[in-house]
UniProtKB/TrEMBL annotation:
It comes from Durusdinium trenchii. Belongs to the inositol phosphokinase (IPK) family. Pfam families: IPK. PANTHER family: INOSITOL POLYPHOSPHATE KINASE (PTHR12400), KINASE (PTHR12400:SF21). Keywords: Kinase, Transferase. It comes from the Eukaryota. This is Kinase. Its EC number is 2.7.-.-. InterPro entries: IPK, IPK_sf.
């Protein structure tokens, strides 16, 4: 395969295929991340053609760099395939289907997703939830997640930053704070902590002005719209999901107000633990989003080193605790039913 000079001139287009499945060679991808020895993210090389299957329909997808492949889990695949999630599409990375990739572990399913990252982004990954939940958690994990949440802002407001980058004018570089830094943030310091991303003016002056003020207002409006959609979804639980905010770093360094405002992207991501269980909408996720919106509104009022307080919404966590326990029992029952099959195979 020949070398490609970026950016590619090819654009997305889709064609219906007659073939049921195509297995893609790992050599056709750039490996960008690994988890537990498994490849988690892959980027296709420029002239790579991908066959993705979505809801039983195979299609050819010809990508430029606006695509990434993510190791599929059953829950995340089900989430993207569910008809109920169609109303969320404008808030999600575009989903093209699943592709088979031949790795050292065999043929593995990968989600074919829009690569939402900008060419030179600063990012803020906001982990939602008062407790991090999953159906596959053990009893020990169940307890440890509650201890972990209690030590962070998650238990207090339903969110924390799980990775944040910003342009630092003093050093002249992009500074990265990892998820462990986010775990150390206290509730009283939330506005200042997130202000590193949402206010990247030279000297980080307050109150918010210009493009950054407009970006916060746009963020509040987007979250409000997302709340409306989630409130209409019956039984869907967004366990482990994040809200990803992105701005163009070059526009910030150039102090190009129009480009800063235009570059703002907000996407809901990470559905490996999402489940359909229970009744009604996900009140835990809704409260988290309400609190995030309230924090951003408080950021608009910040004028001094003292962070403005904001009202906090709290759901009845007993409801989702019970739902999680039910899902954990279901996962264990399924594992016990499948284990004899795996032993024979």
């Amino acid at each position: 395969m020949g070398q490609c000079s970026w950016p590619c001139v090819c654009n997305w287009r889709e064609e219906t295929l007659m073939e049921d499945e195509v297995i893609h060679d790992l050599d056709s991808f750039e490996c960008t991340d690994t988890v537990g020895g498994h490849l988690r993210f892959l980027k296709p090389k420029c002239d790579m053609v991908i066959t993705a299957v979505r809801r039983g329909q195979a299609q050819v997808v010809r990508p430029d760099r606006q695509i990434i492949l993510k190791k599929a889990t059953a829950n995340e695949k089900a989430f993207y395939e569910a008809e109920e999630c169609a109303s969320l599409e404008s808030f999600l990375p575009m989903y093209y289907g699943c592709a088979l990739v031949c790795t050292e572990f065999g043929n593995e399913d990968y989600l074919v997703l829009e690569d939402v990252a900008l060419s030179n982004p600063v990012q803020c990954d906001v982990k939602l939830g008062f407790v991090q939940r999953a159906a596959h958690h053990s009893d020990a994990k169940w307890k440890s997640m509650r201890v972990k949440a209690a030590a962070t802002t998650s238990a207090k407001v339903g969110f924390r930053h799980c990775g944040l980058t910003y342009c630092d004018w003093k050093s002249g570089i992009q500074v990265k704070e990892d998820k462990y830094a986010g775990q150390l943030v206290q509730a009283a310091d939330l506005v200042s902590a997130f202000g590193k991303f949402f206010n990247q003016e030279p000297g980080r002056t307050w109150p918010l002005q210009g493009a950054f003020r407009k970006s916060v207002l746009k963020s509040i409006s987007t979250i409000h719209a997302l709340e409306g959609v989630i409130a209409s979804l019956d039984g869907l639980r967004f366990w482990g999901a994040s809200l990803l905010f992105m701005l163009d770093a070059e526009a910030i360094w150039n102090q190009d107000a129009a480009c800063i405002e235009e570059s703002l992207k907000i996407k809901l991501i990470d559905f490996g633990n999402a489940v359909f269980i229970g009744d009604g909408p996900d009140k835990e996720a809704l409260c988290a989003l309400t609190n995030l919106k309230s924090m951003l509104a408080a950021m608009l009022e910040k004028t001094t080193e003292v962070d403005p307080a904001f009202e906090v919404c709290r759901p009845d966590l007993c409801v989702q605790d019970a739902e999680q326990l039910k899902s954990m029992e279901g996962a264990r029952m399924l594992a016990s039913l499948l284990s004899p099959i795996h032993e024979k195979s």
